[in-house]
Specification:
about 475 residues, alpha/beta, Rossmann fold, two-stranded antiparallel ribbon, hydrolase
């Protein structure tokens, strides 16, 4: 598990690359993250006493609440899960068990631990995978086996390996008749694999059936911490299928299989649960939609009941997962909501007390829209220039055009529904619609997007309230 040893200023600086403005929110989450590192430096007794200060972000949609939390988790390489609070109010099979968000967090942590463990053994796994590829590319003749004795022995060996939780070895490998000619061919192919000259050659491999893994993934049982796939897998051997693919793709599948043999799953599960407990972040969106205020339909689960279900998890409790129990005492919970038709005080008092840090995110200004279009690493203008550039068309935006786009997005937000920065997606898509459509036939060229082009394409639509309501 990696230490979160970034300072608050470093975390804010990293967030600035992706999120414009919202300095108060960035500062608050940076302090919350740094406090986790501080806690890990204390004695074990003191660590148990210090709980994370959960946060409630308040602000309209599209101002960066989710983006701050998601980017924060990536920066510190922490397990992160985003859930919609409204999912827990739906009745029937679509309504989810509240504890499922913790189990989802453990699943994310396990994938992260697997990647770390697999990267540590990759060199050995690649060697083993290349050996298997050599045998597949240059197959040898099978020996004439003594059917009565050998098949029975092979079957007993396979059952023994299954009982010990191991993947059964292919008994046919030991029955190969390797001649000098085959041996020389394999040496030649092994050299070609090392040189990378066979990456695009086709090879047929046997692999686990992905459909079988999906079939065992029962959503309802998974929510209760029961893994039907593992249960059936311990009784029945995995179904294998044959696929023909390029060597480069086949190697990655074989590397994964070999990596699984080289790592200890029990260690991965243990480390993943520790990682989730100490660095996990659960982002609960739309928490304002489960306040008691407002109308409640007869087809909805009690909103206050959902709050009471969430409360023990946020307070700290032990949740059963298929990998073992996890304690939620030190998981960081970040809740967010627009609170347009309700207010934080409409939440039950106990839940309010579990979110002591309140951060109000600012509405985005026209200047903020200009910055969002140009400054971040993944800025929308940069994205569209790169997309259209694939058709050999060089697109340039003048600063006046960018300001005009920002002004239109800002005005439409305040004349219709305020959806924050998401309005820029709608405006840009409409603005560049003709260019995106005609681009492949133009083959090459240079296009400059000017203020007059912006006004010509979407100026009239933006000025007409009825049109902008439906189009932008």
């Amino acid at each position: 598990m990696e230490q979160i040893n970034k300072t608050p200023k470093q975390i804010v600086a990293a967030l600035d690359n992706y999120v414009i403005g919202q300095n108060e929110a960035k500062k608050a989450v940076a302090i919350a993250l740094r406090n986790r590192y501080r806690r890990m430096e204390l004695s074990a007794d003191m660590q148990e006493e210090i709980t994370p200060k959960n946060m409630l972000m308040i602000g309209p949609t599209g101002v960066g609440k989710t983006e701050i939390a998601r980017r924060l988790a990536k920066i510190v390489k922490a397990p992160f899960v985003k859930v919609e609070a409204t999912k827990f109010t739906e009745v029937g099979y679509v309504g989810r068990d509240v504890e499922s968000m913790v189990r989802d967090l453990v699943d994310v942590a396990i994938e992260m631990e697997k990647q770390t463990a697999y990267s540590g053994v990759r060199a050995k796994a690649v060697q083993a995978a290349d050996k298997r590829l050599v045998k597949l590319l240059v197959p040898a003749k099978k020996k004439q086996a003594n059917k009565n004795g050998n098949e029975f022995q092979n079957m007993m060996n396979m059952f023994s390996q299954l009982q010990n939780g191991q993947m059964p070895n292919d008994p046919q490998n030991s029955n190969e008749e390797v001649t000098d000619d085959v041996r020389n061919q394999r040496l030649s192919v092994a050299d070609q694999l090392k040189n990378g000259s066979l990456e695009n050659a086709d090879v047929t491999i046997e692999m686990d059936d992905p459909q079988q893994a999906t079939a065992g993934n029962n959503n309802m049982l998974g929510q209760m911490g029961i893994d039907l796939g593992d249960t059936l897998g311990s009784i029945m051997p995995k179904k294998r299928i044959q696929r023909t693919m390029p060597v480069a793709e086949a190697r990655e599948i074989l590397v994964k299989e070999e990596s699984e043999k080289l790592v200890n799953s029990a260690d991965i599960y243990h480390d993943a649960i520790v990682r989730a407990e100490n660095t996990g972040i659960i982002f609960i969106d739309e928490i304002d939609k489960i306040t008691a205020g407002g109308q409640q339909n007869s087809g909805e689960v009690s909103r206050e009941g959902v709050q009471r279900d969430i409360l023990p998890i946020v307070e700290g409790s032990q949740i059963s997962t298929k990998y073992g129990p996890i304690n939620t005492d030190h998981i960081l919970f970040i809740a967010s909501g627009a609170f347009a038709e309700s207010k934080p005080s409409d939440l039950i008092a106990e839940l309010q007390g579990r979110f002591p840090i309140r951060v109000e995110l600012d509405d985005l200004s026209q200047d903020d829209f200009v910055k969002i279009l140009t400054e971040p690493k993944n800025a929308l203008i940069k994205q569209y220039i790169a997309l259209i550039g694939t058709d050999n068309i060089k697109v340039t935006f003048t600063i006046e055009a960018i300001q005009a786009i920002a002004k239109i997005a800002y005005n439409v937000n305040h004349e219709t529904e305020n959806i924050g920065a998401r309005r820029l997606h709608t405006v840009l898509e409409k603005l560049l619609e003709e260019l995106l459509y005609e681009g492949p036939d133009m083959e090459m060229g240079e296009v400059t997007i000017t203020e007059s082009y912006v006004n010509e394409r979407i100026g009239d639509i933006a000025s007409d309230k009825d049109l902008s309501r439906y189009i932008l």
